[in-house]
Specification:
Length: about 180
């Protein structure tokens, strides 16, 4: 019995049938590419691309997911969360404090929440509670979202401009210097 050594087989050159298949596949891909380009031009002339029966990126999306996507793309996570806090203010600080103090605005750059109180007594009370509130807000929003709470007391009455006012006068405070 003789053992034959396996001879390395070289890959055969594609025969006529194989060459025809490769050429047919290339022709189909080229035709498909030309057809897709022509179809897009035709749709653009008709008023834009239209969505078909299958889902694609042009389909409408739910309002909530569209808003969440917009918030994420623009980097508005912290301001949106703080806006939610302003809506839940009574739950966070309690009903008694919420009756007399309300958040006015949030400065994103300095991370300061501005709160207006209806009396100086409540403003003083809220200044004493501010460190606790900052800790509670940061626990709710994420560390470092609020660094400080600025408490404003009640605003004075609006200055009225009447017929007996001197031009350029700032009212009664004008005489004090």
């Amino acid at each position: 019995m003789t053992v034959q050594k396996p001879t390395p087989q070289t890959p055969a050159e594609p025969s006529g049938v194989d060459l025809a298949r490769v050429a047919l596949r290339a022709a189909k891909e080229a035709a498909r590419a030309r057809g897709d380009a022509a179809q897009q031009k035709k749709q653009a002339r008709r008023g834009g691309l239209r969505s078909g029966a299958r889902a694609d990126g042009r389909d409408p999306m739910a309002l909530g997911s569209a808003i969440n996507r917009l918030i994420t793309e623009r980097g508005w996570e912290t301001p949106a969360a703080v806006g939610g806090v302003m809506g839940r203010w009574p739950e966070i600080v309690g009903e008694d404090v919420a009756k007399h103090c309300e958040p006015e605005r949030y400065d994103e750059d300095e991370r300061v929440l501005v709160v207006r109180c209806d009396s100086t007594a409540w403003a003083t009370n809220l200044r004493l509670l501010a460190p606790t509130l900052v800790a509670r807000l940061n626990q709710d929003l994420g560390h470092g979202a609020v660094k400080m709470i600025k408490v404003n007391g009640p605003g004075g009455p609006a200055r009225r401009y009447g017929p007996l006012r001197a031009p350029g006068s700032r009212g009664p405070g004008d005489t004090y210097g």
